[in-house]
Amino acid sequence: MTQQRFRKEHIVTSVVAVIIDDQERVLLTRRSIPPFKGMWVMPGGKIDLGEPIAVALRREVDEEVGLAV
After folding, report:
1. 10 secondary structure, DSSP code
2. Are strands 40-41 and 14-16 parallel, antiparallel or unpaired?
3. C-alpha distances out from residue 31 to 12, 17, 20, 23, 39, Å
4. What is the pLDDT of residues 35-52, one digit of tens each?
């Protein structure tokens, strides 16, 4: 396998946050883009290449729902 081919076929990973308030309610968002457009999901998204998981989780939650976790 060549180095060029490896770069094109890297694995995409994601993070998802389970945010529960003091009344034990779970925060959900409605997807506005495909796939799963219109479905209720927990906030999250793709991890940028080389990004630490915890950093990706904080970034995605901030981007999607404006909360600092």
Report:
1. P
2. unpaired
3. 19, 15, 19, 24, 6
4. 899 999 999 999 999 999
Asked whether 31 and 39 are in contact (CB, 8 A), the reply is yes
**According to the model, what pLDDT value does residue 11 have?**
78
Residue 65 phi/psi, 5-degree rounding, is: -130, 0
**Angle at alpha carbon of residue 60, lines to 43 and 64, rounded to 5°:** 60
What are 48-63's pLDDT values in tens digits?
999 999 999 999 999 9
What residue ranges in 1-69 does DSSP mark as E strands?
14-16, 29-30, 40-41, 44-46
- CA 45/CA 51 separation, integer angstroms: 12
